[in-house]
Each structure stands twice: as C-alpha cells, then as structure tokens.
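Here is a protein:
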Amino acid sequence: MTTKERIAHNLMKHRKENKLSREELALNCSISTRQLSDIENCKCNTTVDTLDKLSNGTQMRVSDLVSGE
C-alpha cells in the first residue's frame, strides 16, 4: 500500500468511525470538500501543510495518518 493509499484509508476509517460526512470532516480540517474527496480517492499528493490540517481536524498525529495497520 502506498502512502497516499494509507492516508486515504486512515481518513475514511476515521470519518466513518466518527459518523462524519465528507463535508463535516473537510470543515473540521479547514480544507475543501473537493480536496478531501481527492485525498480519499488518491487523486492528489498531499502537502505537509495539508497533513497538518488533517491532523488538527481529526485529532490524529501525522504519523497515525500515514501509518499502515
């Protein structure tokens, strides 16, 4: 699994476990719904700044976002 796929998997898992819509999670992370969708579908490379936003919005460490199970 690539890093992009791990990030996508971990974000979707977090979103579903917390019963959040993409819109809600994107708002929590201060990114657009389109950007979150692209990340979850592995359609873009995530920058360090975006990883920081995702980490803050999900209350997950960056290392947890990029780690495999």
Remarks:
- The mean pLDDT is 94.
- Residues 23 and 59 are 17 Å apart (CA to CA).
- The first helix runs from residue 3 to 17.
